[in-house]
């Protein structure tokens, strides 16, 4: 079929695609990200683009008449029918995400990485010493206490050449694969110095890959990007639907995650730091021989190309939890094809390898003290326990803290308001409310991300702008007004924002096309948004309450609370407590572990103890299914207030409110 060239503006990135390819897919191929909240189903209207050239488009009521006249189409519903220029307006661009790549460091006393490199100096065969090449390797390994190693057919085919080319003095890479020692590489003796591994955090939205020197444990470099699967839906349920309902859905999702990881590997191996170490590009990928990946259960399934549909259906059974060690060649990863790939075990359909990795990174199963771990994302997961027991649960917290289901919410990316403070002064005719904010990148705001939403609600609550139920009070202020969806509060006025401000081509009557800047819009929070955020915080708090109550504990019994995940890292703890998202316990009990999924994957990559600990965590962790749990429903209902129906649970917040009223 004919190739068409599609050029995406303003990035000026071009890609060749086949005639009939959807614009949304062409964008992924060009490494350009267009918002696609509904996963390309033509339902969300977030993928509007302006086109110049031949397209086949479907009429959509999500486009206004003016947009249609100006050649706007939905990228997911329009196909490329010739060379095409596509302009992605600001509102449709998936902005650069603030991706958390740091995690709490645990000092490993001894490195026992997933692969070992050994030098084998073998005697040259003779008529007297005439055992086969493989027996000779085994004899050499037995002298270093490695008994009965196995070898793959492909490596065996390469053996004779590798031994003779290296004059019987070689570097052998050994891995313990599913309880058995396997030889995974035979190379020159100098190859022992080049011993690299990858720790991978496979997130639903973003993927982070660290390149690690397995000889020293040092992280050489870390790269991150969007998970290319986001064109197939924003959350795990949308991805499961896509795998099930779209023709070729599962292979496509698998291809997209593998492409995302391979793209990051390519970037890592082009990294300056590697060049500085004198490792030539092109040889380095082949020196990557061990990989540990951690992801939620759905992501782990899609990475392995396993059908995820039963994850969603009662009784929610995944295909695999304790995933056998695989090889890079089985997964199409562009590293040494023999590289071993270990996936951190998933406990259940909704407590995945990312949470097991969080637990590893927190170190909570190494201590006597009673700890709670909370990971807030699209799903909220909570784990409680100590070195002897663990209990976990997961709630569908709703994506409000990811900026979804909030009118002007957005992910933590450039232009997102991430911090907010209010001052309220009584005036003669009402209130003077001033809003102070800080955006990511210090540019004009275009929305509010999760940490900003928490700040905003906490400030509105403490200043009496909203009541316990999240209703906006009738205060006389120009910032409080009736909007289309009910009452709303203006956070930033149109002239301050970049929301909706863009250079858009307009067709004049004589057919001439002119570029005009569209007007900015006010950034507001509506009462409906506030209720969504309250539901999300209530779900997180209620799941923690259920864990504690089911083990006859109270929040006061906790010695430590670990907060994991990108969102958790940026929030103001005091404000999260004020809203009733997190329990009201002394702040010193809280510990932020950052990207625990990546941190845990790195620990498992570098330490046999940690790999064993991951499997111990998997075995000892019990799971409470909240969707059929009455206690959860009661706890959730009680938490649908700020901070909670029972203010005795939030003594410092009650004190603060009293002080403000007094
Ligand atoms: Fe949702 Fe196109 S309408 S991605």
Task: Report on this structure.
- 29% of the residues lie in helices and 27% in strands.
- The protein has 662 residues and is α/β, with parallel strands linked by helices.
- It has four domains: 3-92, Ubiquitin-like (UB roll) (Roll); 115-192, Ubiquitin-like (UB roll) (Roll); 364-400 and 530-661, ATPase, nucleotide binding domain (Nucleotidyltransferase, domain 5, 2-Layer Sandwich); 401-527, no CATH class.
- A hairpin with a 3-residue loop joins strand 16 (371-376) and strand 17 (380-385).
- Helix 12 packs across helix 18 (608-620), helix 13 (450-462) crosses helix 16 and helix 14 crosses helix 19.
- It is globular, with a radius of gyration of 28 Å.
- The mean pLDDT is 90.
- FE2/S2 (inorganic) cluster is lined by residues 36-38, 40-47, 74, 76.
Nutshell version of this structure?
It contains 20 helices and 29 strands. With 662 residues, the chain is of the alpha/beta class.
Q: Give the quaternary arrangement of the chains.
A: single chain
**Level-2 CATH architecture of the largest domain:** 2-Layer Sandwich
The CATH homology group name of the largest domain: ATPase, nucleotide binding domain
What Rg, in angstroms, do the CA atoms define? 28 Å
Pairing-aware structural class of the strands and helices?
A: alpha/beta
Overall strand count: 29
**Bound small molecules, which ones?**
FE2/S2 (inorganic) cluster
CATH topology title of the largest domain? Nucleotidyltransferase, domain 5
Low-pLDDT parts are none
- Straight-line N-to-C gap: 75 Å
